[in-house]
Structures are given as C-alpha cells and as structure tokens.
Amino acid sequence: MENVLKYTFFLAFAALLASCDQRTEAEKIVDAAIEAHGGKAFETSKIDFDFRNIHYTIYKTPTAYEYIREFTDSTGTVKDVLNNAGFVRTVNGTKIDTLTEERIGAFSRSVNSVAYFAFLPYGLNDAAAVKTYLGETELKGEKYHLVKVTFQPEGGGEHYEDEFLYWFGKDDYLMDYMAYSYHTDGGGVRMREVSGVTEVGGIRFQNYLNLKPDDKNTPVEKMQDLYISGKLEKLSEIILENIRVEPLSK
C-alpha cells in the first residue's frame, strides 16, 4: 500500500510539473539550443573577436547590452559603441556629433547584425521574438527541428519584418543551418551552413558558409529545397578570429 501511495504521489507531482511548463514546443527547443551552445555563459561574459579586419567587443544580458567595433580607416581610429543608451561614434577619441539619423541607423544596424549572429542562438529569447515550430526535417541524412522566428513591431527594431529559419539537431540541439530574409539595403535572402566550430569559455562559436539563391525574392521557406538541390551559390564565408571570452564580474 505504501508503494502504491508513493507511486501515485510521483505521478501527481510529475503531472503538476508538466502543467506548470507553459512553454511552446518552439520555446523548449530554443531553450535547449541556447543551453547546448553555452547557456548562462552568454550573459555572464564579455566576448572579443575579429571579423573582416574589424575588432568587436560584445556582451548581452536580459536587461543590458553593449556592442563595440573598432577599426582604422582614412579618418583615423574609429570606435562605434551601441548600447541601451544609443549609438556613439568617436574618431581618434573625439565624439562625432555631425552624424545624420540615416548614418546612425546604418552604423547601428551593421554593428547589431554582427553581434546578433555571433551570439546565436542566445538572442532568440528576446522579448520581441516570436517562435513557431515547423516540425521535423532532414538535411544530409541528419534529423532537425525546424523553428521559424519573426519579430513583433514593438521592440523588434528596424529589422522586425525579417524572417528567420533555424535548423536545430534533433538529438544535440546544435544549430547547424539557418536561413533568413531581410529588407534593408535592397533586401534578399540567405542561408548559412556551419563550416567550423570553436569553443571558448564555455561558448560555442560557429563559422559559416554564406549562401544565396539566384532570385533575391525567394521565400525563406524555399531555401532548404534549393540547398538540397544544389541551387545555392556561395557568396562569402563568415569567420570569427582571435576569440576571447572574459567572465563579467557579478
């Protein structure tokens, strides 16, 4: 009788836990993917890396973020800082106050884009992100969970109309592929395939082959079929170099 009571209590407790988890299937998959790629290390670390001869320093927590890029051009040493307070550019240590709103927007989008992709899949839990589970699929003999991410206008930034697809391994939840459509700079659609992995400070950093279709108006949902049929062209490579991860003081 005692064993029966214990088993009944266990079932009731398990049912209670299940009923308390109100996450959608897409949210559960994304949470598992974030954990597989670094989990809490994303929001407790400052990350430095070089990308296309530009140095980046980024951190992002649920309540704050700061993205910095530094490079040298004909004007001197340029430093761009994008954070919760806005965007600031300095050249040789002097703040530039003559930037137009258009230029500020362009610089901000450029810095944000690099930080966003470098931190994936962590940013997929931003408040404005809307996640939809599209079911299981298969690429190169491997099974994946396919998740679509869009953004609400409120809090979604200037790119809220963009659409993203993510392929997460069915068993390991690693993000091996992604595709997205975008509307800035004339618009287009891309697919990225992981080409290399570096693990630093408990975080998984990924390099990608950047692929594109012939028609820039291709729906993002068609990218998997084009990839399988070999109809995507290699546009560039996304490679992060000299990666350093420094724990943030608590």
Automatic annotation (TrEMBL):
InterPro entries: DUF6503 (IPR045444)
Protein's recorded name: Deoxyribose-phosphate aldolase
Source organism (scientific name): Algoriphagus lacus
Source organism phylogeny: Bacteria, Pseudomonadati, Bacteroidota, Cytophagia, Cytophagales
